[in-house]
Amino acid sequence: MRSLLLGTRNPGKLKEITSILRGCGWSFCSLREFENVDAAEENGQTYAENAIAKALFYARATGRCALADDSGLEVAALGGGPGVFSARYAGENASDADRRELLLMELAETADQDRRARFVCVVAIADAAGGVLNVSEGICEGTITFAPRGEGGFGYDPLFIPDGYSQTFAELSDDVKNRISHRALALLNTRRFLISCAS
Questions:
Q1: What are the backbone angles phi and psi of residue 121, rounded to the nearest 5°?
Q2: What domains appear along the chain, each with residue ranges and CATH number?
Q3: pLDDT reported for residue 199
Q4: Is the separation of the CB atoms in 34 and 62 below 8 Å?
Q5: Which of 1, 4, 27, 174 has the greatest number of beta carbons closer than 10 A?
Q6: HSE of 183 in the Cβ direction (CA atoms, 13 Å)?
Q7: Which of 38, 69, 70, 175 is catalytic?
């Protein structure tokens, strides 16, 4: 069975990725097993640039096929921000709660009644020889709440209500989130690719 490195140390993200990719014919390992590997830089202008750069970096650093993703929250009233800067929105060492608080504060300061937003995710797979094997994108449209809701998920999940639902990502079950989220949609496309080349 071929092995795929999942290029993250985020436990919530690892759980999501393995749950969606399970049964695709590949075995998985994560960066937790490679403590000497630094975090890849994210200085691209697009999600795809960041995802590809991270996948290439981790593949070369470990000598394995590597999967990496980049995602962000795009809020209409903030001109599409924080976008590719979502993870670094409140500074390098900020917590998820810090980023959520800043987002709600900046949204309130706009006095804009438009709460529309969307999550975007790009997943890339690269090999140790420097080849980009697959790139998949997923988008989930929704709205931003006025206060965090729910204990599940991670990141901006407690602020985001996907279209067609009344609960935030942090309130929805993993089963639902793993069908409709931006990361789920990108990973489902990735899963099809992995199945096609598993043998």
A1: -135, 135
A2: 2-196 (3.90.950.10)
A3: 63
A4: yes
A5: 4
A6: 27
A7: 70
